[in-house]
Amino acid sequence: MSTGLGLSTPVLAPLLPITGTFALPFSAYFTLLSYRVVHYRLQDEHYLGDNSSKTGDLNNKLYLATRCHQNFLENVPLGITLAALAELNGGNRKTIAAALSTLFVLRVLHAEAGLINGMGLGRPVGYWGTLATIGSLAGYAAYLVKGYWGL
């Protein structure tokens, strides 16, 4: 009879199943935002920078698409990292899934119902909601390791 050396499959079971699940929708939406920037660059023949030859920022589709893309990149990595930290430290999977679902919806609202049109209601809702979600995830992740604070 032979014995296996090294780590067995149960030890290598998925460590971040919730965060891993949300990799797909966040990546798909990131791809859409990135494609939109490239589309407007090619349409305007403006291959570098975030302003096309059009005047007025609220009418400049390239500028608005670039801002949507950048805002996504400024917020989502931190949210996903905080969710992963919470999940690795034994956080409730339903709570983490709810937080990542909320973050995804808020980022889509911020871009699609807000920033891409210049000034829509989705912009402040997405902004403030994102800050609240990231703050809540940070607090939850810290709470999960409160035993290590030395108190």
Automatic annotation (TrEMBL):
Listed name of the protein: Membrane-associated, eicosanoid/glutathione metabolism protein
Organism lineage: Eukaryota, Fungi, Dikarya, Ascomycota, Pezizomycotina
